């Protein structure tokens, strides 16, 4: 019984680390993966580097997207698209009365 009480704080630390650090990271990674796979032509997006544009085409061979910007067409990797900013761009505008 004494051995169990010695290891209880260590076990508790692993449980806390799992629920507050590992699990949220896994959840966010899953959301980002589903977001990247749900992209479609015509979506307005922002890359993680701040480039704004609209998706024109996909390159499945390179796992990349072709984005049309003011300067022309640029190819980016799917993982470089910012999930948070792109979602807010594609939401419909709600007018305040």
Automatic annotation (TrEMBL):
<protein>
    <recommendedName>
        <fullName>Sec translocon accessory complex subunit YajC</fullName>
    </recommendedName>
</protein>
<keyword id="KW-1003">Cell membrane</keyword>
<dbReference type="Pfam" id="PF02699">
    <property type="entry name" value="YajC"/>
</dbReference>
<keyword id="KW-0653">Protein transport</keyword>
<keyword id="KW-0811">Translocation</keyword>
<dbReference type="InterPro" id="IPR003849">
    <property type="entry name" value="Preprotein_translocase_YajC"/>
</dbReference>
<keyword id="KW-0472">Membrane</keyword>
<keyword id="KW-0813">Transport</keyword>
<feature type="transmembrane region" description="Helical">
    <location>
        <begin position="6"/>
        <end position="22"/>
    </location>
</feature>
<comment type="similarity">
    <text>Belongs to the YajC family.</text>
</comment>
<keyword id="KW-0812">Transmembrane</keyword>
<keyword id="KW-1133">Transmembrane helix</keyword>
């Amino acid at each position: 019984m004494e051995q169990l009480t010695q290891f209880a704080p260590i076990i508790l630390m692993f449980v806390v680390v799992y629920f507050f650090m590992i699990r949220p990271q896994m959840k966010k990674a899953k959301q980002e993966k589903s977001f990247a796979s749900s992209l479609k032509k015509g979506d307005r997006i922002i890359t993680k580097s701040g480039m704004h544009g609209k998706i024109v085409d996909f390159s499945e061979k390179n796992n990349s997207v072709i984005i049309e910007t003011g300067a022309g067409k640029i190819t980016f990797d799917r993982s470089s698209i910012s999930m948070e900013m792109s979602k807010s761009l594609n939401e419909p505008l709600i007018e305040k009365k």
